[in-house]
Specification:
By secondary structure, this protein is an alpha+beta fold. It has 13 helices and 31 strands. The strands form 8 sheets. Strands 9-3-2-13-25-24 form a 6-stranded mixed β-sheet. Helix 1 links the parallel strand 2 and strand 3 (31-35). Helix 7 packs antiparallel against helix 8 (338-363).
């Protein structure tokens, strides 16, 4: 048995695992990624991703590489599906939900390249078979192409999906439900005998028009839409009494038979690009940490609606990486790593609220359920409701509870809520914390200089500043803020407490109150 050492072992090379590896490498930590599949995936599980992770990638200075590989740049989403309804955000002057159309295999390829550029190692065809942990670290048993071996590390993180082996080995319960719906989805070419009309409807020879969007029958739901590459996205939803095996390949014939059962129409299907079958689950791990074993992404939570999993999982990775790095480097305060579970389980529970609501809207078949959908659709003509719903989908409404007694409305929020336009994004490229001084507060800069080896200090000006200063964590959440005009008597101890809580004990004696200036 050969033994190899790493700082962190990551099980799973999907978007969550690769994002975690890239963030760890940016923080100077050495991860090894183990992926049981021998090659990069080629079948897309998702056609794009959306939400706060796009802003975070922009802060890291890498969003452009994903945009250049996609169908278009990341942009506000005008409309999106919600529980079988169409939600139109176009009336909002600044929609809170942004999306980037990029097939998941391409996303994973780009993240893999980013990890390798930073010196990371991704081992494909390597499966975790066992984990032992003690107070000093973990030993992971691995089955690889050349046989079994062991890896040792400070921590192991399971990013290995809803059926996570790492979560199972850690003994972390994964309570919840599996919905009886079976969803069959295909991306197919437009077949002979089918014409796509200007409004997106399908004109099917020998039948007539099949409307775009969702069609509900007493046998299930059928959905169809046109993709930018000229393909059709078709999907059926039917109830079943048994759990399906997502790993068993689905055929074009199976999809066609399901369409016939649900819609009562023979819909010709062209050459398939993607075929998949899945059931929705609503599950959340009881803990995202068991000693030196942690879970992230689908291993930590699965939601009964599409379009949110990638955002949630990659944001898990961003939240966890800098905390792991601080712990490994011996500068983490007590409880820092535990805050990963506290914050991301809070975010997952919030995401579960709107995805469970979607399940309720989607699944009802009686007149009362139809009335609920009608009422919900009418409510979504109101701008405040649209804004709230879009922010929930994006994860933009998440405000982590902060442990220090600082009740400023910015604390716990994601940086985008500031809307400062001060050039601060450039300062977050290196994934380091930043004290942003908005009121030329030399007293606060002098405090922060004691943490100058790990906290950057920037000054800026902005009209109608929301705070005198804000302390920004590497994950772009605000750890502390000084109210406008706050006295040194309260601002200084508040800042000192926040710096210690999140970034450990100070290591420097202040020598000056000068900071670097950021301008528009």
């Amino acid at each position: 048995m050969r033994v190899t050492n790493a700082d962190v072992i990551i099980a799973g090379a999907g978007p969550t695992g690769l994002m975690l590896a890239a963030e760890l490498l940016a923080a100077g930590v050495r991860p090894v990624v183990l992926e049981r599949q021998p090659q990069l995936r080629t079948v897309p599980k998702a056609n794009g991703f959306s939400g706060q992770i796009l802003q975070l990638l922009s802060y890291r200075g890498v969003l452009d590489r994903f945009e250049s590989a996609g169908a278009a740049v990341a942009a506000p989403t005008a409309a999106f599906p919600f529980g079988g309804l169409h939600v139109d955000l176009s009336p909002l002057p600044d929609p809170p939900l942004r999306a980037l159309h990029l097939a998941q295999p391409r996303l994973e390829q780009l993240l893999d390249e980013l990890v390798r550029e930073r010196g990371g190692e991704v081992r494909r065809g390597h499966t975790v078979t066992g984990i032992d942990q003690d107070g000093a670290g973990v030993t992971v048993a691995v089955s690889g192409p050349d046989g079994p071996y062991q890896l040792t590390a400070h921590y192991v993180v399971g990013c290995d999906g809803a059926r996570s082996k790492v979560r199972e080995l850690a003994g972390i319960p994964f309570p919840g439900i599996t919905y009886p719906e079976v969803n069959r989805l295909g991306q197919v070419a437009v077949a002979a005998g089918v014409t796509v009309l200007d409004n997106g409807d399908l004109d099917v020879a020998g039948h007539g028009v099949v409307p775009a969007g969702f069609t509900r029958t007493d046998r299930g739901v059928f959905a169809v839409g046109s993709l930018a590459n000229g393909l059709l996205m078709v999907q059926t939803t039917e109830d079943t009494v048994t759990e399906t095996d997502d790993n068993e390949p689905m055929t074009l014939e199976e999809l066609g038979d399901s369409i016939r059962r649900v819609l009562g129409v023979h819909l010709p299907l062209g050459e398939p690009i993607r075929l998949s079958r899945y059931q929705f689950q609503a599950r959340q791990a009881e803990s995202f940490r068991a000693g030196r074993i942690l879970v992230a992404g689908d291993a930590a939570h699965t939601f009964p609606a599409t379009g949110v999993g990638l955002n949630a999982g990659m944001l898990d990775a961003v939240n966890l990486a800098w905390k792991l790095a601080a712990d490994i480097e011996g500068r983490a305060s007590d409880g820092l790593l535990d805050s990963y579970h506290a914050e991301r389980s809070f975010a997952a529970a919030r995401t579960m609220v709107h995805t469970q609501a979607q399940a309720a809207l989607r699944r009802g078949d009686d007149p009362a359920a139809e009335a609920l959908r009608t009422l919900f659709q009418e409510l979504l003509t109101d701008a405040p409701a649209l804004q709230r719903l879009g922010a929930m989908i994006a994860g933009a409404d998440i405000r982590y509870p902060m442990p220090n007694p600082n009740d400023h409305p910015l604390t716990g929020a994601f940086l985008s809520d500031l809307r400062l336009h001060t050039g601060i994004a450039q300062s977050l490229h290196d994934a380091r914390p930043v004290l942003l001084d908005l009121a030329d507060r030399a007293d606060l800069r002098e405090i922060a200089e004691q943490w100058g080896d790990r906290v950057d200090i920037r000054t800026a000006t902005t009209v109608d500043r929301p705070a005198d200063a804000v302390l920004i964590r590497p994950d772009a959440h605000i750890a502390w803020a000084a109210t406008v005009g706050e006295s040194s008597a309260t601002a200084e101890p508040g800042l000192r407490d926040a710096l210690t809580t999140w970034f450990g004990a100070p290591t420097r004696v202040p020598v000056s109150s000068a900071g670097n200036t950021v301008s528009d």
